[in-house]
């Protein structure tokens, strides 16, 4: 197999892994939240408040898409908008207590999915895969 065909096969398998992971999350989480909304909430929980621009950069989507996702999070009571202290025209998004409670429920289910998906690899293989993914994403 040449380099090009190996890369094509890796790309195909990576897409399959992504699809399998998304399907597992969808089947097991059932909390009325999309994958992108979940990702945004975890960022807000872990980082504190963020602007929509920062969120768009972090999850690799457009600013209008993040604004739409933010609207849904706010409407659901899982996040709130705050004025940005340094720029009154800008707003920040922050997770609410309801959003924290939602993530606590989801995290249990996500950990179960992760365990099922990754239990085929030993600890060294997981670390190696994490390093390789980090290299590809940077």
From TrEMBL:
InterPro entries: HTH_MarR-typ (IPR000835), MarR/SlyA-like (IPR039422), WH-like_DNA-bd_sf (IPR036388), WH_DNA-bd_sf (IPR036390). Residues 7-138 form the HTH marR-type domain. The keyword Nucleotidyltransferase does not apply. Pfam families: MarR. This is MarR family winged helix-turn-helix transcriptional regulator. Keywords: DNA-binding. PANTHER family: MARR FAMILY REGULATORY PROTEIN, TRANSCRIPTIONAL REGULATOR, MARR FAMILY. The keyword DNA-binding applies.
